[in-house]
Predict the 3D structure of the following.
Amino acid sequence: MQENLNGKLLIITAPSGAGKTSITKYLMKLFPQLAFSVSAATRAPRAHETNGVDYHFLSTEDFQQKIQNNEFIEWEMVYEGKYYGTLKSELQRIWQNNQVPVLDIDVKGAIHVQQQFPRQTLALFIEPPSIEELKKRLVRRGTETEESLQARINKAAYEISFSHSFDEVIVNDDLSRACAEAEVFVRRFLEA
């Protein structure tokens, strides 16, 4: 039986360091119907990242031109001078393959997408067990300066205040349990 997945969207959002990427990767391996929506970003690629796979890395000028051309479903200046967004062309590409786009995006962007597609989205909010634990995770990553770490912690506290805006909230205090919870919600959504 060929299910019609066109138009469905799976949004996974969380404060930075809460585990959304790990949970997203778990779900991607489990459900062949899902396809990762590659976000656009103006930041420099990290050592292990590939253009077009992890992000579409764009110059600020290119990104701003795409904003002018209305090429984004959502976009944000997430940190000063750092733009992130979801290209309409990414969603179309995935829907044309009869798959469900998985948007691993920030909280503001997730709310914006939900407002545009209210009946066809499942939005999961991954919440850290505490701000203290989140700080430990970000420190272990080793990618933050003291200043950027504080900015991420402040932003995380603000983002957590919007968790009630999402369909399901998963507290990631144990990654395997959080993945199992996400799996139940996604399976129900795909079969609906």
Q: What stands out?
A: The longest strand covers residues 72-79. DSSP finds seven helices and nine strands in the chain. The chain has one domain: 9-191. The radius of gyration is 16 Å.
